[in-house]
Amino acid sequence: MALARHTPPGPEHKDAADQNFDYMFKVLIIGNSSVGKTSFLFRYADDSFTSAFVSTVGIDFKVKTIYCKDKRVKLQIWDTAGQERYRTITTAYYRGAMGFLLMYDITSEESFCAVQDWATQIKTYSWGNAEVALVGNKLDLEEERQVPTEDAQRLATELGFQFLEASAKDNVNVKQVFDKLVENICERMNESPNGDTSLPAKSKGANLQETPRSGSQGGCAC
Ligand code: GTP
Ligand code: MG
User: Fold this and answer.
1) Buried b / exposed e across 159-177, counting CB within 10 Å, b at 16+?
2) Is ligand 1 within 6 A of the CB of residue 34?
3) Most buried among 26, 60, 91, 175, by the most CB within 10 A?
């Protein structure tokens, strides 16, 4: 785990060059194409939103430094392409990730049905000890909702994930999602014998399935 206390950077430095932090956490945003992953990251990191859809090619990242209790945490947030054709590239980045935002779109049942598959991808390609937050984005489109909150909450509980609905557009629960994820990563790290998230710690109920389950699970009709 990166632990640094270097000379504080000058005001001209941006977050990416900031070496003054206690921990560095790598977090990935995953989920189907068009659920709003890039929008969510831009809202969080830059407080901006655009309704234009420019599908992500491969992978990109932004850095944001926040506080968790008295610790300065540098978040390296990787925004992955949801399109299947980039899967080989994006899954290569799962290794070493301490947290995942697994996103679906509350107006797209298809994106929710894919959640179990994404959970399996985490299980397959990550180090197996990551905190995962299930995020139902586009909460501002309530009238077009296809995924009931209770179904998503049930699935999150089954999988041992935290859960929140949010809107990148209206800036609802965006900061809260990241704050909670970071808090959980910190907690997990403190549970680990030498404070290293890369070591297997108590599973805290994480229940990732090796193979996708069908039918009634989470109320998904796919
Ligand atoms: P890929 O890069 O292809 O994986 O897609 P993505 O998940 O990054 O989706 P992106 O953030 O590019 O958003 C897709 C579309 O949804 C864009 O037109 C966004 O403006 C829109 N969008 C994103 N978040 C919201 C939201 O909270 N509410 C609404 N109404 N639209 C949103
Ligand atoms: Mg994108």
Assistant:
1) bebbbbbbbbbeebbbeeb
2) yes
3) 26
